[in-house]
Structure prediction request, 135 residues.
Amino acid sequence: MKLDIEYIKEMLQIFVESDKACFGLNDLYKSMALISKDDEKFVFHYRLLCDDCLVEAFSDQVSASSAIVRNQSGSYTILPTPLRLTKDGIDLFGALNESKVLEQIKKVPAMAFSILRVVAMDLLTAYIKKQAGVE
Prediction:
């Protein structure tokens, strides 16, 4: 499956716009279903957030990545797991939320997710330096 940067941004935005310290995985799923009804897309992108430690479980009972279970029928069960956005997740959202950064990243459609994070932060840093007159 291809990485959808806009979809990742939308997922992160749900956390950022929440007024709570943690956000339920079920709530995230429901919010994202308004954007796309594709369960595979949700699971794929959610797991990327987990792989890169952009979200973590706000619970000792289950990890963020194990909160979605694939059943024998191929459907998914989403465990009611409270999640929090990590510092890295907040930073990536800040970068992707800057339209000039997002435009530049979209120019390289097959970018690896780990590289996307580094490039997004580098672009944001350069943009802020330019705006502040540091460069």
The chain has one domain: 5-129. The chain is about 55% helix and 10% strand. Helices lie at 5-17, 25-33, 39-51, 87-96, 99-106, 113-132.
